Amino acid sequence: MKKAIFFFFIFFFTQISAQEKLMFWPKGEMPNSKILSSKTKKKKVLAELKEPELFAFLPSVKERNKMALIIIPGGGYSKLTYDEGAFQIAKWLNTLGISAFVLNYRLPTSEDLIQKEIAPLQDAQAAIKYLRKNAAQWNISPNMIGVVGTSAGGHLATSVSNISKDYTGLKGDWETISTIPDLAVLFCPVIDLGKFAHKGSRDSLLGENASAEKIKEYSNQNLVTEKTPPTILFHNQDDTAVPPMNSILYYKAMTKNKIKGSLFIFPKGGHRFFVTDKNKLSENWKKLCADWLFEMSNK
Fold this sequence. Notes:
By secondary structure, the chain is an alpha/beta fold.
């Protein structure tokens, strides 16, 4: 498998000064790439990305606790809606003392890839390894690294939560670092790729003619085991893009396997959970989520 250089860019926003650009993989260690040129648009929506990016949002040292969350934006596996769907959540998490890292991952629609459907998972696994390996740098705990997934990002978050096989190919001391997060927060997640699928996400990830076997394999309610990390899910009943049955199926599988967690379905709000939402009922997700994260940090 051909390899290329994989860089993670870390920037500090608002009151945090910019950090140097960090090389994530050792030179030549990024798998699954043909090393093609790409056009990247740095706007609110990212449609093509060759080299994954990680943006760090850190609370002040005095306010910082030991938890860190990797935020995985959605976009149907064809783009990345990382502004409202990730950056705002990261800044909100900072108010709770939680370090947040927004992951812009390679999309399976990229022509740069050899095996398209595993590229997002490789990037998510690598990001978790990286934070655990370098936890002391940010004064966080390597045993309190979680993921936050929105929409298709929720599919990736549940993939990395349940797939124990290490697809990064990293050797040496990297091999001993787990790729499974310690907890997960999901907002209107894509879970099922069958009956209740978001068709755009499924087609972008698996292709328009995916077999029944492949669809079942990537429907993440089928992956839940007793080793799945604690998870909290938020969905809106009137979500017509990703039916709430996605969250219900995942929570049902969690219950079957005795996984700690919670599921909240609000009557309206559509396909979104933004920090700036003014819906008086669904905006309660912030308190519910904060309380749950506090409980997890003190378990």
